[in-house]
Amino acid sequence: MPRTAYALLGPTASGKSGLALALAARLPLEVVSMDSAQVYRGMDIGTAKPSAAERARVPHHLIDVVAPDQGYSSGRWRSDAVRAVVDILRRDRVPLLVGGTMLYYRALARGLDVLPQSSPEIRKQLDEQAARRGWPALHAELAGIDPKAALRIAPNDAQRIQRALEVWRLTGKPLSALQGVAKNELPFRLKAFAIVPEDRAELQRRIAERFQAMLRAGLVEEVRSLRMKHRLSASTPSMRSVGYRQVWQYLEGEIDEAGLASRAVAATRQLAKRQLTWLRSFGELERIEPDADRLFSRLGA
Predict the structure, then answer these.
(1) Using 50, 70 and 90 to split pLDDT, how confident is the model at 113?
(2) What is the mean pLDDT of residues 147-156?
(3) Same domain, 68 and 154
(4) Which residue, of 44, 69, 125, 221, has the greatest Cβ tally within 10 A?
(5) 199 and 274 both lie in a single domain
């Protein structure tokens, strides 16, 4: 009979990492990161990456996988995650996938759609067009090609607009027609839990406090150092991450320090809102409080 892996999802700043660490004090647990920003080396502060001491105490996987000027897809993450989980189970330990990148969870739980690999040439063309016309104009173009996809994508969501148009240019088919036909086969059972905060005002307060703590910890200096060490631009996927995107704008002189904080907090709150919408769409999730005792009793590990 297949062994079981567990997943712990929730919006940003909901207490996922702390709960995982508390649980690890009671179980032979290893964490598999389900965070699309923590895969990048050197992006530590703005991703709330676990500290060196925490990672020494509890093994973490899929953190610091690639340099920030490299790409990393949900497909690659799924392959890496399955490999990590199988290895953890083989060693008779408990795998816990932890994070808020809902696209990663969907890829793992429901499989991957058959989509073309990214094309650097087409992405460069789209970036150049966006620089001239703006992403809302490209979103309008997408609406004429693939209205179903356009309805799901915000007019300023550069990354998703770019991908949808890229798929159209590569295949001549709308992205929406290629999605939803995935087949999922996992060599283990997957049981997932979700932290869904009831007090949204408290979550928003925690988001604001955490970003201020990131600034005090040196987030601006971290991004400045990354810009010196790597070939990055505002359109590089790593620099589109919430928080990093706003620091980039600050370093470019587009916004001041007050604008940096307000924009980053607002963007993070919007991210949390989208994450909660995703969570509601996953009917298989068991909602829990961020309480290690209760989660421990439900794992059956």
Answers:
(1) low
(2) 91
(3) no
(4) 44
(5) yes
Mean pLDDT for 116-130 is 88
Is residue 264 predicted with pLDDT exceeding 50? Answer: yes
Q: How far is residue 174 from each of residues 102, 148, 169, 206, 287, measured CA to CA in Å?
A: 22, 9, 9, 39, 35
pLDDT of residue 1: 43
Give the chain's domain count: 2
CATH of residue 140: 1.10.20.140
Q: Domain of residue 156: give its range.
A: 120-178
For residue 262, what are its two tokens?
């307000």
- Residues 160, 244 within the same domain: no
Looking at 129, 144, 178, the residue that finishes a domain is 178
Examine the domain organization and report whether 214 and 278 are in the same domain. yes
Q: Residue 292: what pLDDT?
A: 74
pLDDT exceeds 90 at position 247 = yes
Report the predicted TM-score, pTM, of the whole model to 2 decimal places: 0.80
Q: Does the pLDDT value for residue 77 go beyond 50? A: yes
SS (H, E, C) the chain: CCCEEEEEECCCCCCHHHHHHHHHCCCCEEEEECCCCCCECCCCCCCCCCCHHHHHHCCEECCCCECCCCCCCHHHHHHHHHHHHHHHHHCCCEEEEEECCHHHHHHHHHCECCCCCCCHHHHHHHHHHHHHHCHHHHHHHHHHHCHHHHHHCCCCCHHHHHHHHHHHHHHCCCHHHHCCCCECCCCCEEEEEEECCCCHHHHHHHHHHHHHHHHHHCHHHHHHHHHHHCCCCCCCHHHHCCCHHHHHHHHCCCCCHHHHHHHHHHHHHHHHHHHHHHHHHCCCCEEECCCHHHHHHHHCC
Strand partners, 189: 4
Same-domain check for residues 18 and 82: yes
